[in-house]
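Reviewer comment 2.1 asked that we show a complete input and output for one of the modelled complexes. We chose the 3,4-dihydroxyphenylalanine case, as it is the one discussed in the main text.
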Amino acid sequence: MKEKVENIIKEVTEKLDKATSLKEINDLKVLYLGKKGPISELSMYLKDLPNEEKKEFGKVLNDLKTELSIKFAKKIAYYTDLELQNKLQNEQIDVTLPEMKIQTGAPNILEKLVEEVEEVFMSMGYDVVDGPEIEEDKYNFELLNIPKGHPARDAQDTFYLEGEEILLRSQTSPVQIRTMLEGGGNTPIRMICPGKTYRRDADDATHSHQFMQIEGLLVDKNISLSDLKGTFDVIAKKLFGSDCETRFRPSYYQFTEPSVETDISCFACKGKGCSICKNTGWITVSGAGMVHPNVLRNCGYDPSVWSGFAFGFGAERLAMLKYGINDCRTFYQMDLREISTFDRKDVE
Ligand code: DAH
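Response of the prediction step:
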């Protein structure tokens, strides 16, 4: 028996000496101390031994177990530490390496401009509303006082989808109609609607078949052109600086009477004349006017009680002016070389 035990110790010691990984050591541990190992096997004889031998043999087996367990524990501790040291060594971070340039995204400049405009109008109590891009002729034209066959339709070369009734909206003005119809003829309205619009234009530096407008509408009692002028002045100064001046020029739209073009003083030359303002000192940024009585009536508002003003900004044009961009295709072509140039503090 003694010989057997000594053999086991010798065997384990030799094998452990050769083992060089945690896995090997753990496998050996299972092999010798596990249920099917030699110690379990020896324990089976215990029950057949006479009592006094049982006691002695039991002690020998226990000592053997303890001795082997200590051997394994020491070796496991050694290799656990070694593996950790290796890991730390191999995964060391070299802080002297030059940083890696991570390319980050930048906010879409057009969205940024729209958000800025929205904030100014919201601070004046306006709601920001939405409308469908696939629109019915009656909202896009008819109820805006532009009947079928009217020459004013020619100015907006429209994408028709189904016959003559369903189209891609050519302006955001139909959202005025939808909002007034919801207002039911007896509710004051203050809304702006930024959104995509579509026209059959050939794309170039200043035209795009898809572009963005920011529509605005205010309907209440006793509203006059001077309210429009005051409102326009606020937004112009917010966007282009407190020294920005504004003026109206007479114009014509079917859905406003009177109609105006709204100009801001040129922020680049301060009115002296330059290439941005084509030497006029002024830049046109929107169409606007007093809501036409027919339009109010079409939407259930009595023009003898209610009046209002409306306006439509071209968002690309505003952004081009504000950020000095001279080709509106920049907003849509997703050319990272161009777009990344907007990733600057002054744009944020
Ligand atoms: N819808 C016009 C356009 O696309 C812009 C416009 C002009 C909108 C005058 C208005 C307005 O609301 O009152 O050219």
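Residues 2-90 form one domain. We note this here for comparison with the apo prediction described in Section 3.2.
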